[in-house]
Amino acid sequence: MDTIIAIKGLEKTYASGHKALKGIDLDIRRGEIFALLGPNGAGKTTLIGAVCGLVRPTGGTIIADGHDISKDFRAARAKIGLVPQELATDMFVTVWNTVAFSRGLFGLGPNKAYLEKILKDLSLWDKKDAKIATLSGGMKRRVLIAKALSHEPKILFLDEPTAGVDVELRRDMWQMVRRLREQGVTIILTTHYIEEAEDMADRIGVINKGEIILVEDKTALMRKLGRTEVVIGLKEPTSAAPTISGHTPLISEDGLTLTYVIDGDENDEAPADLIKRLAQSGMDFTSINMNRSSLEDIFVTLVQ
Ligand SMILES: Nc1ncnc2c1ncn2[C@@H]1O[C@H](COP(=O)(O)OP(=O)(O)OP(=O)(O)O)[C@@H](O)[C@H]1O
């Protein structure tokens, strides 16, 4: 497996004495989309900050594309683009100039064709001469992304990219993320919108109280921890719940609803099989509902 970021024993204790990262070990694979999930205050921003050189770790090592962040910072940082949560500076500069300036910070010469392409991809081209202060919140977000991409990074961090963003920008953003991945860029994102991680990510990491509690392939995670509830509405109340293929249902108080729970690691056909057998048993049912647990359910269970 080709690792692009290797984090070992990473610790951060703030001056306040708060331990925000407690010995993080994490490998990010080249070319993947990795979603880092965690509740408020879990340490996501601190972890990203440490990799991007904004937070000075108090222990451990970070290697980004072969460069040690603390010993070889400039070379490591040149590989990384960061889309932070907020735009801090540059209010009176034009879109074009701020993006070109960001590129220059990495010692790269101007590349008009490249900058034009990213501005066009982000629907910012017609705003290229507008001052940042005159842009809407969504447009400012697009500028942040353009700045992060200005030096052609191999690794892109997106910290809560879609918080407070409208539907159109969210869609554009994910299209762009997919395009970048196709070009071989590795993407690490944090999000509170778990359905986005479910849609986009190849792997999921969960951080809680400064510790990584799980890193898993998304599909494997859904399979392992996800479950399906088959809810059967009955015509007549029952008190005797039929056990089918080893599954004993929960019976509602009125005896009219049976809920069978099928674990995620069972056969894909298990729910259909169960329904067929119920029908064969002669039971008279009026409705069938299937609820699959989402990544959100899995996440809440894990963090609890
Ligand atoms: N500069 C700082 N000084 C002291 N404590 C800090 C500092 N920055 C962050 N913390 C604390 O470290 C912990 C981790 O914060 P961090 O911002 O990394 O969490 P997060 O997972 O990004 O949270 P959120 O989802 O709310 O953005 C929190 O308890 C926070 O209060």
From TrEMBL:
<feature type="domain" description="ABC transporter">
    <location>
        <begin position="5"/>
        <end position="234"/>
    </location>
</feature>
<dbReference type="InterPro" id="IPR003593">
    <property type="entry name" value="AAA+_ATPase"/>
</dbReference>
<keyword id="KW-0813">Transport</keyword>
<dbReference type="InterPro" id="IPR027417">
    <property type="entry name" value="P-loop_NTPase"/>
</dbReference>
<keyword id="KW-0547">Nucleotide-binding</keyword>
<dbReference type="InterPro" id="IPR017871">
    <property type="entry name" value="ABC_transporter-like_CS"/>
</dbReference>
<protein>
    <submittedName>
        <fullName>ABC transporter ATP-binding protein</fullName>
    </submittedName>
</protein>
<dbReference type="InterPro" id="IPR050763">
    <property type="entry name" value="ABC_transporter_ATP-binding"/>
</dbReference>
<dbReference type="Pfam" id="PF00005">
    <property type="entry name" value="ABC_tran"/>
</dbReference>
<dbReference type="InterPro" id="IPR003439">
    <property type="entry name" value="ABC_transporter-like_ATP-bd"/>
</dbReference>
<keyword id="KW-0067">ATP-binding</keyword>
<dbReference type="GO" id="GO:0005524">
    <property type="term" value="F:ATP binding"/>
</dbReference>
<dbReference type="GO" id="GO:0016887">
    <property type="term" value="F:ATP hydrolysis activity"/>
</dbReference>
